[in-house]
Structure formats: structure tokens, C-alpha cells
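Summary for the funding panel

The consortium committed to producing paired sequence-structure records for every protein in the target list. Below we show the first two records in order, beginning with the earlier of the two.
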Amino acid sequence: MFDRGNAKLEKHRIETLSAITGERVYVEAMVQRPRSATDVLDEALLDTVLKRLAEIEAKARAAAHIDDLDDLEGVAEEQGEFAAYFCPVMDLRTEGQIVIDEIEGWGIPAAPVKSLRELLDGALKDGHSDPVAARSALRSLLRERNAWADYADDYEDTMRPLAWKLFSTTVVLPFVAALSFHFAVRFSPLLIVGLLCAGAAGSCVSVVAKMPALDVSLKGELDAYQRRVLSRIGVGVIASLIGSGLLAWLPVSVQNQTFADALTACATGKAMGTTMLTVVAFPMILGFSERTLTSFEQRVFGTPTKSRKG
């Protein structure tokens, strides 16, 4: 029988082993670069790093849990950062520039990139006079690159499934709302269910349209984003329900039919295609943003004036 859990583990194991191999290749390639006679390679550190990577690879082949594989991949990345100490002095600045350009290409905000460039200019430009400090700075850049790479992976792992869930919900809820309005003639509370479903669909569209960019971590919001999504949908649903109540109360008509007339037609089983579309579309529009109700209220009742002092 097919074991989905074991298949997922083995797939993750292959990815982890590939990452470990990539770190080892990066270290070995750095060692093979031409260097001057005075630029002595630290053979003892190289032997230690390669031995440690071999141990990590062996543990990854025997790991029984995905979390263990993730931890081992992180340790391998730390070992790969030691490649900075094998970089020839004449290549330090160029290598640092490549690392920063790679980070910037991921869409990272300008402020962190600017700080990294300041580190590059301050420590790597004088690599010949102080190679130890320059290589330490390059290692810091490599650590920063790995941190941003891990965050980008976390971002995709969070946002992609959430986007698909919201998309699926947006497709399904309008049909549920239409069915609720259709059968409201048999059970009138289904009108409320239909309004809630339509409002929730509009709120989901609003969330998808305003999903945060990659720099959301700078505000510490990625971990709490799913909770914020639920709160935004909840606010949108309530705003849609309140707005629908206002529309049903106000004598605003479209083609000689008010929103109250459309709801009444659904409740009495006389709703036609256009009427059903109206009662689904308006709550979706109201639920599209929690700010819609405020804008609608200002248009109908006007903007309140501030009281004068004195």
C-alpha cells in the first residue's frame, strides 16, 4: 500500500541531500579558485568543514523525521558559510557584490540591501590590508543570504496554500449563496446564510488582492498573518451584512427594483436570474473591503462635521 507520509519524507530527504551537496560543492569550488602565493589556504579549517558536511550527510540519510532533515539542512548551510574563509583575497569584494545582488533580486526591501552594501564597502574594499576581517564580513553576507532564502521559502509555504484556499472559497461561496437564496422560499433564514456566504466571498477576494509582499517579515507579521486573514474576513462579512441591511432599508432602486424587492422575490420564490445575481453581487461588493461600509455610509449620510471649539 502507498505510504504518503513515507513518500513525503523521502522526497524531503532528496531535497536535503541535494542542499548538503550544494554546500559542499560551493566550499570546494571556492578552494579551487586561483590565489596568490601569499594568500595561504587554511587546510585545517577546510578538513573540519568537509568532515562536518560528511557527517551531516550521513545523518540526513538516516533521519526518520522531516523536522530532523530541516535541522540538518540548516546546519549544512552554516558549514557552507565557512566558504568565505577560503575565498581568495582578490575575489572578496566581487563575491560579496554577487551575494548582495542575489539577495536584491529576490525583491528584498531597499533598507536591508543598503545596510549590506555599507558592510560591503566598509569591510571588503580593504581586503588586502585586513583579510581576516574581510572574510568575516563575507561570511556575514552569506549568513544573511541564507536567512533571506529561508524566509522566502517560509513565505511561499505560507502564502501559496493560503492563496489556493481563498481562491477555492471564492469560487464555491457564490454558488452556496445562490442556492441559499433559491431555497429561502422553504426556509427563510437561508436569506441570512446567503448574505453571509456572499459577503465572505467578497472578503476572500479582498484578502487575495492585498496579500503582503515579501517584506512582511520586517514588521513581524508573517506568523500572525493567517489570524489576520480570519479577522479581515470576519469584519468583511459583518460589514456586508450591515450594508445589505442598509440597502434593504433605503429606497434605492436599480431598474425600478430595490434590494429589498430582490430579497423579497427570493423569499417568495419569484426570483429571476438577474434578481439572483443582484442579491449575490451586492453583498460581495460590500464584503470586498471592510472599508466599503464606511464609504457607503459617508455617501448616504454625509461626512460628519467636527464641532467647533469654544
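The next record, for a separate protein in the list, is shown here:
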Amino acid sequence: MVNPSWRVLDKSVRQTRQKVRKHQADLARAALTEGNDIQQNAESLEALQAVQAELEALCAQRKATPRKVTIESLPEAERPSQLLPLSKMLSDAVKMVAYRAETAMVALLRRHLKKEEDARALIRELFVSSGDIEPNTQTNTLTIRIHRMANPVHDRAIAALLEELNSQEFAHPETGAKMTFALV
């Protein structure tokens, strides 16, 4: 990973370069104006040379510092606590799949509700609502009974959504049991 000390030095080098550019611009602006003071020009030139010397020292120090280090070589307090890129990619992929599934269910529910925001809110409410799961080994089915919503309009929309899901004849991924949904 990038060495935190090198990163701090690199930031200082960039800031000092900006100071050099500012001093150079001030000196050029003073040279273009008529009746400029020689003492003021000398002070501007000295300030520019001091900042340039500071820049050279920082560049030498940055060059002497290794740019990359191993995580194990860092003190415990300086070690990163973020997810590694691969873990983050997996987490992002799961979030995308969940969002797409939610969006597909919203599209099914939109036929019964006027506004997409209402459909999305109802789907979120459905995801956190209580229900019962009844396995039946004789018929190899898994019945999911969703408890009614707070509003009769929402009940009708959810019932229509569950009928649509039943017509798809989903199977449980591990047991292969046919999943049926009902509103109770």
C-alpha cells in the first residue's frame, strides 16, 4: 500500500509547488508594473528562493522515503480499516442484485399502484413485515404466509403481487420445494 509518510510528504510537495507558482506570479506581476520598487522586488525574489529551497528539501526527503510499504510493517494505529477491494466488490455486487430484485418487484406492483414511490415504499414494508413459513414434505412445498398490511389498498396490491409470484413457480434453492405465497 502507499506509505502514509510518503503521502504526507507528497501533499507537502504539492502545496509548496503552489507557493512557488504564486511567488513567481507575484514577481512577474511586479516586473510588468511601471515604477516598481527595487527593494520590494528583492524581497519577492528572496521569498521565491526560500520557497524553492524548501521545495528541493521536501522533494529530496520524499525521494528518500519508500513510496510503498507492506501493511504488516505499519504500526497498528496506521493500518487501514477499510474493506479490501475484493470484499467491497462482493458487497457492492450483493447490493446491486438486491436492488435489482426490489426494482423488479416494484415493476410488478406498479400495475396496482399509481406512484412508483408508493410501490417502492410498499415493497420495503413487505420486506420487513412478519409472516409464517410452513414446509410440507408430503407435497414438497414451502408456503410463505405474509401478514396483512395496514391499508386495504396495500393488501390488494400485495395479494396481486403474491399471485404473480405464485404463477412464476419459484423453487427453494436448497430443498427444491415449490414456494407458494399467501396473504393472511
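Regarding this second record: The beta strands are 131-136, 141-146, 178-183. The chain has a mean pLDDT of 87.
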